[in-house]
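STRUCTURE:
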């Protein structure tokens, strides 16, 4: 998957970028028509000004729409894992919606033609 990573107000380490790329490449197992992705990495101040919360926003482009997730964590790796899990469920739902359930040969089509008893 073609992936653009933007780190806002800091420079991301190559290890982090490679980690994110590997994790997002695994999404192809759930939906193989992913076009591209865009990742935004941010450091935001938590309740106390000394603690920085790591935030990741991921936008995935698929035919017919975009999927978006925003997660926070103590590390970018933790936030990435949470975001990938959320994207997995979004991709499954998107794939189920786009799959034509009345395609010829499907169970519903055969029942409508009277070829299979309901």
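SEQUENCE:
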């Amino acid at each position: 998957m073609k992936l653009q990573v933007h780190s806002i107000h800091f420079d991301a380490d190559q290890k982090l970028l490679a980690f994110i790329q590997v994790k997002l490449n695994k999404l192809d197992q759930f939906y193989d028509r992913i076009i591209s992705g865009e990742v935004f990495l941010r450091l935001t101040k938590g309740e106390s000004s000394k603690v920085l919360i790591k935030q990741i926003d991921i936008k995935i482009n698929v035919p017919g729409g975009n999927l978006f997730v925003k997660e926070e964590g103590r590390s970018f790796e933790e936030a990435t894992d949470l975001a990938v899990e959320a994207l997995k469920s979004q991709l499954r739902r998107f794939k189920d919606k786009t799959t034509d359930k009345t395609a010829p040969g499907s169970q519903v089509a055969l029942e409508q033609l009277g070829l299979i008893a309901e």
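REMARK: The first strand starts at residue 2 and ends at 7.
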